[in-house]
Specification:
With 202 residues, the chain is mainly alpha-helical. The protein has a domain of 135 residues. It contains seven helices and two strands. A hairpin with a 2-residue loop joins β1 and β2. α5 packs parallel to α6. The chain starts with a helix and ends in a 15-residue tail after the last helix. 5% of the residues are buried.
Length: 202
């Protein structure tokens, strides 16, 4: 990989750290804390949120007819999502340890915390957690696929337009046959930045 590309990727990491710092600052500003995956607001903020909550009846009445018609289709998607979730668990449990690939922590991707927001009515909270589950599941699946791809085919795409996952920066440049042949074995074990689990076999 070129030095310039490495520099850009380092800049991205620094920007991600800056985002985390800013989110921490906003956390203090909005007067809440996260403890053991539970969000705790200060008492006066909690009371203010309850006052701001709209009624469920009003929310449903104001919904368009198309929203009501599409809702069952949206919620039916939970079935393939749960099947995917179970399949990912089985895949991780069986396949990743065989190759010494660290498992992905589901809880780092599927985060359900919007139901703590009392300014949302009950249906809004359900909707928000539903979306969080789907997007978290997609992120979880992408990370599992990314670690698998690093082992089996760590080559960047020619166009450079692909959506980049967390392991993509390690991959060999498209067309760099020498690097691929010389360094593939090393890259297959390059998970030092991740928490390693004991390898069942290699």
């Amino acid at each position: 990989m070129s030095n310039r590309l490495n520099d850009i990727l380092e800049e991205i990491k620094e920007l991600e750290k800056a985002v985390e710092t800013e989110m921490k600052r906003r956390e203090e500003e909005l007067k809440y804390q996260v403890r053991k995956r539970k969000v705790i607001f200060e008492k006066e903020i909690k009371a203010l949120h309850k006052k701001m909550a709209g009624s469920l009846f009003s929310y449903v009445i104001k919904s368009s007819l198309l929203t009501v018609i599409s809702a069952p289709i949206i919620y039916a998607m939970i079935i393939p999502a749960l099947v995917l979730d179970i399949c990912l668990w089985i895949y991780q449990a069986i396949c990743l340890p065989i190759y010494g690939i660290p498992r992905v922590k589901r809880k780092d991707h599927i985060i359900l915390d919007r139901h703590f927001l009392k300014y949302l009515n009950i249906l809004e909270r359900i909707n928000c957690d539903y979306c969080s589950y789907f997007n978290g599941l997609a992120s979880y699946a992408t990370e599992i696929a990314a670690r698998t791809e690093q082992y089996w085919c760590p080559i960047k795409h020619a166009s450079g337009k692909t959506q980049r996952h967390s392991r993509y920066h390690l991959f060999f440049d498209y067309g760099d046959a020498q690097a691929y042949k010389a360094k593939l074995a090393d890259l297959r074990n390059k998970y030092d930045d991740l928490e390693r689990k004991p390898i069942l076999s290699k």
